[in-house]
Amino acid sequence: MNLQAYVILCITTLIWGGNSVAGKMAVGHVSPMMLTSLRWVIACTVLLVFAAPQVRRDLPVIRRNWLLLLGYGTVGFTAFNAFLYSALQFTSAINAVIEQAGIPMVIFVLNYVLFRTAFSMAQIAGFTLTLFGVALTASHGDLTTLLSLQLNQGDALMMAAVLVYAGYTVALRWKPEIHWKSLIAISAFGALVSSIPLLGWEIATNRMIWPDTQGWVIVAYAGFLPSLVSQILYVRGVELIGPNRAGLFINTIPIFGTLLSIVLIGEALQTFHIVALALVLGGIAVAERGRPRLPEDVKAR
């Protein structure tokens, strides 16, 4: 039992769960695209010092793969957070964190469709449970709204966020062999550049809200903790117990996000949330236990 790794990874997913809560608290204090842009301004400024030596060493590889690396930032960082922060204008933080639990299911489907990745019947059963949990959340406990295509705008935007991040994760199989600091730094720069047109659109349509005091606190949180600290901690956790075991901790994000939503912003925990959480976490547990074992799984134990 590696207590240090467990503590590090729980702090990591607590920070990630808090990102959705921060986005909800930002409503009326800083607009979604302004928050997205300022977040990456902070992250890039810190990375300019923190990762610069490694980026210089990896420069030949970066030059050959610059479009792909910037694309990671555009899709996985900017697009995901733009959809997330926009969704939170219309739906609850609890809904947002539970719906994010659908990401592993979409990754599973994409990997099978695109690469015919091996799967088991337990995975199908597990992800079916997860799908019901996410659908129950998106429909606010009334699945008939899905049949009539009456989906809350915020929940629809969260579905887009889930698709975007799953696509980004699958695309990481093509990442070049560079240091993780360089990968984060160039992706963050791509996120900053791609967020500028979105901010321009927000300004042009009179939707932009310059951060007030609370807005700046949220910007600082998003810029330092989810963008930087959690990434570093996650890498350390992977070093200690391996990627497969570390990846399981991502499943705690809905739990931490739900608890933070209740404690910090007073959102109500409804019966359908509890049922959805049980379905989502139970489904992921079934899928993980029943997935085909690969050679690297044995090495990580």
Automatic annotation (TrEMBL):
Family per similarity comment: Belongs to the EamA transporter family.
EamA domain span: 5-137, 154-286
The organism's taxonomic lineage, starting at the top: Bacteria, Pseudomonadati, Pseudomonadota, Alphaproteobacteria, Hyphomicrobiales
UniProt-recorded name of the protein: Drug/metabolite transporter (DMT)-like permease
UniProt subcellular location: Membrane
Topology of the protein relative to the lipid bilayer: Multi-pass membrane protein
Entry-linked InterPro entries: AA-Vitamin_Transporters (IPR050638), EamA_dom (IPR000620), EmrE-like (IPR037185)
Lipid metabolism in keyword set: no
Domain of life: Bacteria
Chief location category: membrane
Keyword line: Membrane, Transmembrane, Transmembrane helix
Transmembrane segments: 38-55, 67-88, 94-115, 122-141, 153-171, 183-204, 216-234, 246-265, 271-287
Source species: Rhizobium herbae
